[in-house]
Amino acid sequence: MLFRSERISDLVTSSLPTVGLRSPSHPVAQQVLKLSGLPLAAPSANQFGRISPTKSQHVIEELGEFLNYCLEGGECSVGLESTIATVNLQGEVSVLRPGGVSLEALESCLEKSFRGLHTELGLPSVASHSPMAPGLLESHYAPKKQMFRLETRFQEFDFKWLKENFAGLKAENEELSLLSPFPLSAEIHRRALKNFNRVNFHYLAEDENDSLTAAHTLFSKLRELDSNPSALILCELPQSDKALWPAIRDRLTRASKKWSL
User: Fold this and answer.
1) b or e along 252-261 (b: 16 or more beta carbons within 10 Å of the residue's beta carbon)?
2) pLDDT digits over 32-48, tens only?
């Protein structure tokens, strides 16, 4: 994020005093820029606050009635939006939203000029009512269905309490969806199925070493969960601060509400 000049329209900056600049690596985007000979302003191809698209079919499903055409560039290679960083007058770089470029990569490149991630209660330290950049709202990337994030692990979660107290799940035929960073144990499967006749188990990657697969899977998985017949989505946040896990945790936090008894 850099301070904008007066030539930059409010429509490009959401009326903020700064502007975000991107240099896309995708060959289709590069060719569009080359043929146009102009800088282009392009928002995310999804409705405000909803799940980001990672392939053209997502765009068509959500915005098709408003489109004259959709440029096919294949599925996103990473699956997460860009890392948003701000540069102060001393040339120091701080990350406002973790994304496809990891914190380790930025630190390796910028060394002492890198100030790290600004965090507050798991969210970037910007007021939710006055964000410093688009994409930093407290609720964002969210499915239409109710989705809650756990403060604990599924290993410690009381499925019996959920069955007895959550109104939307009291009917015998109601389904529950669980989303975890990694495959859940057989014991957690057993406890969940003991209390609910139908449970959908979903995960993002096989283990902590594969954050790229998790990032690539995340938004497609949220769209799948939003369209299945379950009454509620419960998710467990990844705890790792390595690679792309902070960005995945950020998106899941914004896509969900805090679960509290």
Assistant:
1) bbbbbeeeee
2) 999 999 888 887 888 88
